[in-house]
Structure formats: C-alpha cells, structure tokens
Write a structure and sequence with these properties.
This protein is α/β, with parallel strands linked by helices. The protein is built from 18 helices and nine strands. Strand 3, helix 3 and strand 4 form a beta-alpha-beta unit. Helix 2 runs parallel beside helix 7, helix 9 runs parallel beside helix 10 and helix 9 packs antiparallel against helix 15.
Length: 346
C-alpha cells in the first residue's frame, strides 16, 4: 500500500543486484492468447504499438474507441477492427487499458466496468491506477501489467525490425491461476520477450517509474540543463554556446550510456571529460540532491504525489498551466528553436 516504507541494509542491497529473473521467448507461450480476443482500449502511442504487434503475431485484436475519436480512421487504415469502447469490452477476453492515468478512472467507471464479465483479464501498461486505487477492479477478473520500457513508437519500430524492447510484468489479481502466463504471452506478442521481461509488482513499477521521471529522466535532467545554461549565460558566455554544451550534446552522451552503460561511456570519452565526470560530478549531485531525491521518493511512496496530481487534474489544472508557461518562457527555448532551425537535417 502507499505509505509503506522500507530501507535495504548494505548486505541486502548487494544481494539484490542481478537477482531479478529475466524471461525470454522460450519462457512465454502465445497459446495463452490464441482463440481469445484482445481488446485494446485507446489508440495512442502504446495502444497502437500493442495492437499492431499483436495483430502481426497472429492474434485476434480489436480496438475500442469512443464514437467521435479521431483515432478511428487511423486504426481502420491499419487494418484493425474498431468498435465503441463498451462493445469492445464485452467482446474481449483481455482488455488492455491503453489510456492515460488522468482519463482512465472515468472511462473505466462509465464504459468498461459496467461491461465486464467474470473471467476476463484487465491489462495495464503502468501500475498507477491500481496501486493508488483510482481504479478498483472487481474480484472475478485477472489483473496484470505488461510495461514496455520504451515509448510506443519504439515498441513498434523494434518489433518490425525483428527485435524488441525490455518490459516489466506484474500480477495484481490471479483469479484464473494463469494470469502470469497471460502476461508473458502478451509480452511475447508485442516483442518484449525478445529483449527480456522482468517480473515485478504494481507497487515497485509505479514507485520506480514515478521516481525516475521526477528525479532523473524528466524533472532532474530538465532542471540540470536549465541550471547549466543559466550558469554559463550569467557568467557572460554566449547563450548559443551554453545551449550546445548543456543541451545539444547531451544526446551524444546519453546514446553512449544507453549502448554501453556508465562505465562504457567513460571508456569512450576524452581523458579530460572522464576526470571531470569523476571529480566534479559528485560535487554537483551531492548529498543535498540525494536528500531531495529521498524526499521525492517518500512523497511517491506515501501517496502524497498521487493525491496532489489527481487533485490538480480534477480541479482545472491551473497550477500545471502556470508552470508550463513559466518553463516554456525560459530563454533556452528561444535559443534552441533558432539553432535547431539551422539544422536542416532535423
């Protein structure tokens, strides 16, 4: 439950490294999906990727959308059957909620829950709605998660190339006693077992996903870029140079890290860069930053972040709009737009 806190001892931390089992193609059987209808509710980035990959894996797929959805024509052009959401739920055996965390509760309440029947499977790509109980499923259905560790276009692109992106699976309710096999089969159907699938829980996926977004991938990286840019410009350097050094070149380093890990990246950068990374980096990301990270994680675990997020989304999103306007007014945006305009290959 949200609020549960724990801290690994150094010995337990060391034993946890490399402890997770990785499932691959040989561990998953598509027969758990054969003869069943997979209903994909929503046709955004993840919904489209899952639907097309499953279809190309030989599965029976339908897409559920509301009558006026602009995605209807796009799904139809892809050769997929499209039904109104309630009908797609009634016909489906596995119901994939390819919806945003903000849309999901109302759509589930009004269009999905009234049309569920015993024995169906609800499938999620993120644990937020289940873990924070914005959705509480009935007890006579399986509830599982298959969370690809990549954006929808990457899930589709890698599948088409004969590869896959890693994924996480989890089981919340196992009414049928074979919910895990269903999750693994879905992971295989969308190509993720080609790369490797790890088993986790809805709680662990939700907490780590939110923390990664806030502290590192989105929030932390954006704030670090802006802070670096501001530091150079206020010291008198041209904003164009600050943009190149603090934002533009970040992709090169991230690509190296993605391909070879942190240690591999160090082997490929200059000695000057390597010495700076080893000696100055820890001074920037110091104990104060780590303290703030622990505070952010506490807010996620306790449910405070989720409560604030849901409240903001259901009361007009005025603060979010103000914060977006402020972020988009930062000078780095104007400098970046002008410089990117000069890069014709983009």
């Amino acid at each position: 439950m949200p609020g549960q806190a724990y801290q690994l001892t150094p010995k337990a931390f060391a034993s946890k490294i490399l402890a997770a089992r990785i499932y691959t193609d040989k561990d998953a059987d598509l027969r758990w999906l054969k003869g069943k209808i997979s209903s994909v509710i929503g046709f955004g980035a993840q919904g489209r990727a899952h639907a097309l990959n499953l279809r190309d894996s030989g599965m029976d797929v339908i897409v559920g959308l509301y009558p006026g959805s602009k995605s209807r024509s796009r799904a139809g052009r892809s050769g997929l059957r499209v039904l109104d959401t309630p009908e797609a739920v009634r016909r489906g055996d596995i119901i994939f909620l390819a919806l945003s965390d903000t849309q999901m509760p109302a759509i589930y309440r009004d269009q999905i829950a009234p049309n569920l029947r015993p024995g169906q499977t609800l499938l999620f790509a993120h644990g937020f709605a289940i873990y924070y109980r914005t959705i509480v499923p009935r007890k006579d259905v399986d509830v599982v998660m298959v969370a690809p560790k990549g954006l929808g276009p990457m899930v589709r692109r890698e599948f088409v190339r004969g590869r896959g992106v890693p994924a996480l699976i989890a089981v919340h309710q196992d009414r049928s006693r074979h919910a895990k096999q269903t999750a693994l089969a879905w992971g295989k159907g969308i190509g993720c077992t080609r790369a490797g699938v790890l088993e986790t829980t809805f709680r662990e996926e939700t907490e780590t996903d939110l923390f990664g977004e806030q502290a590192v991938l989105c929030g932390g990286t954006s704030a670090l870029i802006r802070a670096g840019f501001d530091t150079l410009v206020r010291a008198g350097y041209p904003p164009e140079l600050a943009y190149f050094e603090c934002l533009h070149e970040l992709k090169f380093i991230v690509d190296l890290i993605h391909e070879a890990g942190l240690a591999g990246m160090r082997k490929l950068i200059s000695d000057t860069a390597k010495w700076g990374e080893l000696t100055v980096g820890p001074k920037i990301i110091d104990q104060t930053v780590r303290k703030h990270m622990r505070s952010a994680l506490r807010d996620i675990r306790s449910g405070k972040f989720a409560r604030e997020f849901v409240r903001e989304m259901t009361t007009g999103s005025r603060r979010r709009a103000d914060l977006l306007r402020e972020a988009e007014a930062h000078p780095i945006e104007k400098v970046g737009a002008r410089l990117r305009g000069l890069m014709s290959w983009k």
